[in-house]
Design brief:
Number of domains of chain B: 3
Order of helices and strands of chain A: HHHHEHHEEEH
Largest interface: A-B, 38 and 55 residues
CATH architecture of the largest domain in chain A: 3-Layer(aba) Sandwich
Largest sheet of chain B: 5 strands, mixed
Shape of chain B: globular
Radius of gyration of chain B: 22 Å
Bound molecules: flavin mononucleotide, iron/sulfur cluster, FE2/S2 (inorganic) cluster
Strand order of the largest sheet of chain A: 2-1-3-4
Distance between the termini of chain A: 29 Å
Largest sheet of chain A: 4 strands, mixed
Structural class of chain B: alpha/beta
CATH topology of the largest domain in chain B: Rossmann fold
Number of domains of chain A: 2
CATH superfamily of the largest domain in chain A: Glutaredoxin
Strand order of the largest sheet of chain B: 8-7-11-9-10
Oligomer: heterodimer
Order of helices and strands of chain B: HHHHEHHEHEHEHHEEEEHEEHHHEHHHHH
Structural class of chain A: alpha+beta
CATH architecture of the largest domain in chain B: 3-Layer(aba) Sandwich
Shape of chain A: elongated
CATH class of the largest domain in chain A: Alpha Beta
Strand content of chain B: 5-15%
Number of helices of chain B: 19
């Protein structure tokens, strides 16, 4: 199959593999899958997993096993911006349910759904280690903490603006 | 109180090698390299330091179990998976004091004879792993990492390894599986990681805070460290406080502070938010038993309860709890115990790796029955069923996640049974409002007898 990864990414993969003892490069699978997901528009389809298997000299099943175990790997397409709102105890106590309901209303989607324009996906997740700054969500690489309805409005606005600039 | 870990956290630029070093950072490495590895292990033993990841196992003792077969590499793996609900102290250390962790890893690696160490960091802490990578690069540039560090003849490398979303990877053997690029399925022990760990080699797995604590132990000596605190709770402990308090955050405490002072004093939590009363608290992360206010502030013997290993567990599970990871969640009088317990049961159900049937099926049942009760469709016999299910999980699984799922449910029923009953008898009402049994905040007879 054609090579979907740039030379820069391939170099990065080699650097990741070199972090582990000789012959144990399978250890780099989790970081490599993170990278593959990023390159592949935020999710892992079978083709990209097979490609990773080939790069890592693994059987495809070894890659599927891992991809299906960890919650950060998306096995279905997601929107450009994924709102991952924490709803475990400490966040619930600080009103995460209201935030989730507000996002549902505002974007007119349910949990695990994506808006028709492909911009937003809403997910609920378990504790992200930010309980003191609750309610919170993960958006891409970073955390958005101390959420209120107004903050949510701002974040949605910000995403729409960023998307318009990047197009 | 003198802070040992967080004393420099507010110094501008402390994230950078330059400032950190100027403030006295990396002295412990220079000292360690003049000592013998065994002498360092002795200092750690003397300090009385106990693992800060949750179990509280003495660190020096753990280090002394590490097998040292000829010609086989040994590894130090730092557990930065931090996923126990209520816990966010390791993130704070790594985000704001990345060099403290690197410094601790270098000393510990030297003591253990590990030339390559890994920081297994939860996948969601993406930006934190970038901060660590930057700090590692700086330390390497200044000769503290790499080959022959500071001309000592000791080679030392540190790599970050990001997980991908799985609480179970905090369990040390699941973590090692995950480090090897596999599903995070806990291994059957023995063999313990000290004998067969990462890639079959002897390995020590320690929590981030544990490794950071090695720095003050090296600087001031094990004995000085052991004099701080009380009894077997030596040194300082980070507590991540959350819930209905005025000042959530990460606090470094001397383990002689009382729970009452920790909650109400302005130095720490600053009291219950919005002038409400204290109802209950989970003092050590979601896996430890919840305590009603009256049992939290005083032990069953009527003594002031202190924020340390012994005092928090005084009375066992009948009237006590545990220090755990230091994730301290406070609930005010308006909070619903059933709903809160449900979120925890759902968490464990979601996070069970599925290897053992009592855990895989049991966590599913706990989640399902609690959902039924919370939705106003429960029956009285469901409370006993919940009790039976949790009992059947406890002690019957490969790893302690099963127990961790069972204990919160058991404690909630033990101490708040009347609230479960209320949910069942007031079907309509429990759907429209939270139910707060505020009387738990008052001086009470000890009701816990189940
Ligand atoms: C389900 C489960 C999750 C755990 N999660 C963590 C964790 O996130 N961080 C951690 O340091 N220890 C965690 N532990 C404890 C580790 O297995 C291990 O005891 C600890 O990392 C040892 O380090 P310490 O001796 O420095 O505390 C967890 C244990 C279990 C059973
Ligand atoms: S107790 Fe649960 S999490 Fe632990 S090994 Fe068994 S099924 Fe997996
Ligand atoms: S409960 Fe939401 S971040 Fe911990």
């Amino acid at each position: 199959m054609s090579i979907p990864f740039s030379q820069e990414k391939l170099n990065r993969i080699n650097e990741l593999k070199s972090r582990y003892p000789a012959g144990k490069s399978k250890s780099a699978l989790l970081p490599v899958l993170h990278l593959a997901q990023q390159v592949n528009g935020g999710w892992l389809d079978v083709a990209v997993m097979d490609y990773v298997a080939q790069l890592m000299e693994l059987k495809p099943i070894e890659v599927y096993e891992v991809a299906t175990f960890y919650s950060m790997y998306n096995l279905k397409p997601v929107g450009k911006y994924v709102f991952e709102v924490c709803h475990t105890g400490p966040c619930m106590v600080k009103g995460s349910d209201e935030i989730i309901n507000y996002i549902k209303q505002k974007l007119n989607i349910g949990v695990n759904e994506t808006t028709a324009d492909g911009l937003f996906t809403l997910k609920t997740v378990e504790c992200l280690g930010a309980c003191g700054y609750a309610p919170m969500m993960q958006l891409g690489k970073i955390y958005r903490e101390h959420l209120t309805k107004e903050r949510v409005d701002e974040i949605i606005e910000e995403c729409r603006n960023n998307s318009a600039i990047n197009n | 109180m003198k802070k040992l870990l967080l004393d420099k956290v507010n110094v501008p630029g402390i994230k950078t090698f330059e400032v950190y070093r100027r403030e006295g950072g990396y002295r412990s490495v220079e000292k360690a390299l003049t000592m013998s590895p065994d002498a360092i292990v002795e200092e750690v033993k003397k300090s009385g330091l106990r693992g800060r990841g949750g179990a509280g196992f003495p660190t020096g003792l753990k280090w002394s179990f590490l097998a040292k077969p000829e010609g086989v590499p040994r590894y130090l793996v730092v557990n930065a998976d931090e996923s126990e609900p209520g816990t966010f102290k390791d993130r704070y250390l790594m985000e704001f004091l990345p060099h403290l962790l690197i410094e601790g890893i270098i000393c510990s690696s030297f003591a253990l004879g590990s030339n390559v160490s890994y920081i297994y960091i939860r996948g969601e802490y993406d930006w934190v792993s970038d901060i660590l990578d930057t700090a590692i690069g700086e330390a390497r540039q200044h000769g503290f990492l790499g080959k022959n560090i500071l001309g000592s003849g000791f080679d030392c490398e540190i790599y970050t390894h990001r997980g991908a979303g799985a609480y179970i990877c905090g369990e040390e053997t699941a973590l090692l599986e995950s480090l090897e690029g596999k599903r995070g399925l806990p291994r059957i022990k023995p063999p313990f990681p000290a004998i067969k760990g990462a890639w079959g080699c002897p390995t020590v797995v320690n929590n981030v805070e544990t490794i950071c604590a090695v720095v003050p132990i090296m600087n001031d000596g094990g004995e000085a460290y052991s004099k701080i605190g009380i009894g077997k709770s030596t040194g300082t402990k980070l507590i991540s406080a959350c819930g209905n308090i005025n000042k959530p955050g990460v606090y470094e405490i001397d383990m002689t502070v009382s729970v009452e002072d920790f909650i109400y004093s302005d130095e720490y939590c600053g009291g219950i938010a919005n002038g409400k009363r204290l109802k209950a608290c989970i003092p050590g992360g979601s896996s430890v038993p919840i305590l009603p206010a009256n049992l939290l502030l005083k032990t069953a013997k009527g003594e002031k309860r202190l924020m340390n290993y012994e005092s928090l567990s005084d009375g066992g599970f009948i009237t006590g709890s545990m220090m755990g990871s230091g994730g301290f969640e406070v609930l005010d009088e308006d909070q619903c115990i059933v709903r809160h317990t449900l979120t925890l049961a759902r968490f464990y159900h979601h996070e069970s790796c599925g290897q053992c049937s009592p855990c895989r099926e049991g966590t599913g049942w706990l989640d399902k029955i609690l959902t039924t009760i919370e939705n106003g469709k429960g029956q009285m016999k469901d409370i006993d069923l919940l009790w039976d299910v949790q009992k059947n999980i406890e002690g019957n699984t490969i790893c302690p996640l099963g127990d961790a799922a069972a204990w919160p449910v058991a404690a909630a029923i033990r101490h708040f049974r009347d609230e479960f009953e209320w949910h069942i008898t007031n079907r309509e009402e429990c759907l429209v409002r939270n139910f707060g049994l505020a009387h738990y905040a008052d001086e009470l007879k000890i009701a816990a007898t189940t």
